[in-house]
Write a structure and sequence with these properties.
Layout lengths: L16 H10 L1 H7 L4 H11 L3 H10 L3 H13 L4
């Protein structure tokens, strides 16, 4: 039995810019953050994730705690992801 014939392959990659913006608008916490004084954090989320929805979601999960998000983004910057 060949697994390839039994599986559905989906390309999971970065979203186009306009769809990444829609994702941010639909993510309640990231959207609130975008409309706050900490908007730069959302810009960093976009830069680090390159619009990849799974990465954006994981970072968005931290967005309710701005310090945790800022710390995670700093660590990712230090590792060269920006």
């Amino acid at each position: 039995m060949i697994l390839v014939e039994k599986a559905v392959w989906l390309a999971l990659g970065p979203l186009p810019d306009n769809e990444a913006r829609l994702f941010l608008q639909s993510h309640q916490v990231l959207n609130q953050l975008w409309h706050s004084d900490d908007r730069h954090l959302v810009s960093k989320v976009l830069k680090i994730s390159h619009g990849h929805p799974l990465i954006m979601q994981r970072l968005g999960d931290l967005a309710h705690d701005r310090e945790a998000l800022a710390e995670a983004l700093s660590r990712l910057e230090e590792k060269g992801f920006i």
